[in-house]
Amino acid sequence: MNNENITQTTTAQGNQNSIPVFYPSAPAFVPATLKKPPRIRNAIRELNMMGLLTLLQFGISLVFSIILMTSYMFLGLSTADSLAANWLLCVSSLASTALPALIYVWHGKDIKLRTLLDFQRTPPGIFILLSLAGLSICLLGNYPASFLSELLERIGVPSLTESSEISLDPSALPYILTVSFIAPVFEELLFRGVILKRLESFGTGFAIFASALLFALAHMNLSGIVFAFICGLVFGFIYTRTRNLWLPIFIHFLNNTLSILMSLMYSALGERGETLGNFIFLAMIALGILALLALVIFKRKVFMENSFLLMQFDMKAAASIGIIGSADGPTAVYTSEPPLKTGESMRVLRHSAPFWVLLGLTFVLHGIAMLTAWSFASYAG
User: Is residue 14 scored above 70 in pLDDT?
Assistant: First the structure.
């Protein structure tokens, strides 16, 4: 007879009015969210916050777009030639990329802008070689992006960002300023300076991949997702190896400015300009490949990662334990937590609601564009 039966029998004989009955305990109900390990839950929470920042960027841009379209309708502004409309577009780009990061920093109690922005010194030679190598990989990303764009066009999916010719006149100045300067600076501050940095405590690889994915989805263009994702991987990789935000900003600037330059040459010189632009495009790729080979042969340590440098913190702490010699400015924090594995990273992405919302919005916008194109085609026919 076990202890439970002895207890029940003894109690029943001594007191017929009070008979305790022992039942086997039922398994406790645990919500699905609590079944995840704490580190996975924390990663999902942080990625959700970064996804909300990306959605905030889209929301601000949408508000300015509505204002822009309202201006077209009620003020009679021209979408092609209006200097005022182009300046409004410039302000929209600045606000949509700068405000999310500033709001996040102001709202966070333990977040300081100083600890999110790394501008560590990079030797000039390494800076130039990394810039050329990074630019060449970004340019090579145009080939799979073009293939996907043509494939989508064949099935009737239009691009949301049509390429247009740029001419050297005052109305083009805001557009050039936006694409060449505002976008590279503030997009890198948001996606590498804030988003990648906050995700880096869960592993450098996870942070690079997730920030590049959010960067690609932020463009809301299926034909441009592949190109933007490749660029995001390049920017994130170079940033985590140098801790210098100027490098991804500069590569981003070179890529966008080269695109504008090629458009200007085509607009001014026609087919000759297009031929010259293609020559410059291929020359930059070849030059970047040579720079990459030089780095691999002579500066291989640039591609190696210190496993304890996972998230920026305070350089004074690092200097106090002798890892670095200077205590000026922010650097990485030292953590013993292992990085997320591939399966864990995919699990975090799968459970991130803002990620799916961004992807859904991309498909919705393309669906609206398709319906609009079909409506115009039917009306014209």
Answer: no
Q: What is the DSSP letter of 25?
A: P
Task: Provide the angle, in degrees to the nearest 10, between the axes of the packed helices 204-218 and 342-350.
Answer: 30
Residue 262 or residue 117, greater confidence? 262
CB atoms within 10 A of CB 190: 28
Task: Kindly report the backbone phi and psi dihedral angles of residue 109, in degrees, each rounded to the nearest multiple of 5, phi listed first.
Answer: -75, -35
The overall longest dimension of the chain from CA atoms, in Å, is: 108
pLDDT classification of 167: cutoffs 50, 70, 90: low
* Phi and psi at residue 244, to the nearest 5°: -130, 105
3 state SS for 189-241: HHHHHHHHHHHHHHCHHHHHHHHHHHHHHHCCCHHHHHHHHHHHHHHHHHHHH
Which segments of the chain does DSSP mark as H helices, in order? 3-14, 38-75, 83-107, 124-140, 142-154, 173-177, 183-188, 197-199, 204-218, 222-242, 246-269, 271-298, 315-320, 342-350, 353-380
Predicted pLDDT at 77: 59
Structure tokens at 229: 């994702």
Buried b (16+ CB within 10 A) or exposed e, 125-137: ebbebbbbbbbbb
pTM as predicted: 0.81
User: Using a CB cutoff of 8 Å and minimum separation of 24, what contacts does 62-65 make?
Assistant: 64/88, 64/89, 64/91, 64/92, 64/95, 64/96, 65/92
DSSP helix/strand/coil, 75: helix
> How many other C-beta atoms lie within 10 A of the C-beta of residue 356?
14
The full length of the chain comes to 381
Closest Cα to residue 239, out of 283, 301, 169, 188?
A: 188
